[in-house]
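Researcher: Next sequence.
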Amino acid sequence: MYRIFFEIQKKHWWFVTKKKIVIDFISRFLKLKADAKILDIGCGSGLMLNALENIGQTFGMDMSDDAIAFSKEIFKGQVEKGLLPDQVPYQTSFFNLITALDVIEHIDRDVDSLKKIRNLLADDGKAIITVPAYMFLWSPFDEVNEHKRRYTLTELHEKLIQSGFTVEDISYFNTLLFPIVYIVRKINNLLKRDGASDVDMPNKFVNYILTKIFGLELYLLRFFRLPFGVSIIAVVKK
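Model: Next structure:
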């Protein structure tokens, strides 16, 4: 899966638009100085590292040697092996921004992991966290990616508060394509397909259309908290 992500992440509608949405949230909710310290936890195949590098001094962390190897092919900064919540190779109270994008759903101790993210932040530091939404969307894709759970917005909000964060904004997203995702997931479950189909690269026309539809949410999220979606995004403050 890391290889698949590495090969398609620069053009697949989901990865391209998700990155734009995260960067837009950073620009709206953080006023970072040029020497800001940024950590991307669960950096995977390096999707966010180059984009974050344009904002501040960026570091990466992942539990997978394969992921780190892919990240280092496209990112020259520091990427360390680590695992939330107990095996983190970075010092506490150090980072001005931490991104944990589709990370905590992989971890049994999600609240402890959120507390660790908080401890890694400098005073007034912020984190941007995304997770997959709704257990009724559970599919082989979640199993292939070793997910432990999917969240409701209320559940994630409660765990963020329990971890000591102040929640500045939280919303579902990937809302406009929710009906399509729901139907595809249910068909895949019925036909017992493996999860790889969720990240198949669509043809150029379909990919273009999906990118444009999903891309509308970048603007909607500036004015509204979306009422449902395939994923959840939260901005939290130490």
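Model: DSSP finds nine helices and seven strands in the chain. The chain has a mean pLDDT of 93.
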